[in-house]
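Weekly sync, protein design subgroup
Attendees: M.S., D.O., the rotation student, P.L. (late)

Item 1: inverse folding check
M.S. brought a backbone from last month's batch and wanted to see whether the design step gives back something sensible before we order anything. D.O. pointed out we never logged the input encoding, so this time it goes straight into the notes. Structure tokens as presented (212 positions):
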């Protein structure tokens, strides 16, 4: 197992941008675990699954999924879905399906295999608590709800989202990601806490580098 920098935090805290830059500067690989949950959601939606589908059926559907992640691209049974997983609908369902046991079990293995050969910056909701509790360095990135909603709005306004929807989206996602029984978003006691509300990306990266 190589070195892992594990980063958790709520949606919109800046994890992906910061993780990508950190990985580039340090020569580590970047593991975007949200993209894996999104790809699973896309696949399950295409198979007709929704909130009402039971775990057994989800588990059976996952037997037909080969998921690959490399160089920042996500492949579902060989098809590059890196753009398709960014829609608000898939954002919603990734959060819904991420609460399901077969989905978390399926992705746990894939995530843990990633740093076997490469130093890794891994980012998500349960990196510091469940997937890599023994990570080399641990961070928890946070920002106010208002600031995270504003970031989401800027990211998705081209797709027609309103500020009100962005706000509701982020709040609902927070509740689901933190309130679920399995691997909920939690701040690990040994993770360095960084509030990014009034820090830009560069300042956040600089701050993190101080702890390496
Ligand atoms: O970071 P993101 O918005 O792309 O993640 C999409 C959803 O996936 C998020 O709402 C919760 C889920 N997720 C998770 O449960 N565990 C992770 N390690 C990463 C994401």
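Designed sequence read out in the meeting:
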């Amino acid at each position: 197992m190589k070195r892992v920098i594990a980063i958790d935090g709520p949606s919109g805290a800046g994890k992906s941008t910061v993780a990508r830059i950190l990985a580039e500067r340090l020569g580590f690989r970047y593991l975007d675990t949200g993209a894996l949950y999104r790809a699973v959601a896309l696949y399950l939606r295409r198979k007709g699954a929704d909130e009402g589908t039971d775990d057994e059926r989800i588990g059976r559907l996952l037997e037909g999924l080969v998921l690959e992640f490399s160089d920042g691209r996500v492949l579902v049974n060989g098809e590059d879905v890196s753009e398709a997983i960014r829609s608000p609908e898939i954002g919603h369902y990734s959060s819904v399906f991420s609460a399901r046991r077969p989905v978390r079990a399926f992705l746990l293995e894939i995530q843990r295999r990633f740093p076997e050969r490469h130093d890794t910056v891994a980012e998500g909701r349960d990196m510091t608590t469940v997937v890599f509790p023994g990570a080399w360095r641990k961070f928890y990135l946070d920002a106010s709800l208002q600031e995270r909603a504003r970031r989401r709005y800027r990211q998705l306004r081209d797709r027609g989202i309103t500020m009100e929807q962005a706000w509701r989206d982020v709040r609902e996602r927070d509740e689901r990601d933190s309130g679920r029984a399995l691997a909920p978003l939690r701040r690990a006691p040994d993770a360095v806490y960084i509030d990014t509300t009034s820090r830009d990306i560069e300042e956040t990266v600089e701050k993190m580098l101080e702890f390496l």
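Discussion: DSSP finds nine helices and eight strands in the chain. The pocket of 2'-deoxycytidine-5'-monophosphate is lined by residues 11, 33-34, 37-38, 91, 94-95, 98, 124-126, 173, 177 (CB under 6 Å).
Action: P.L. to compare against the previous round before Friday.
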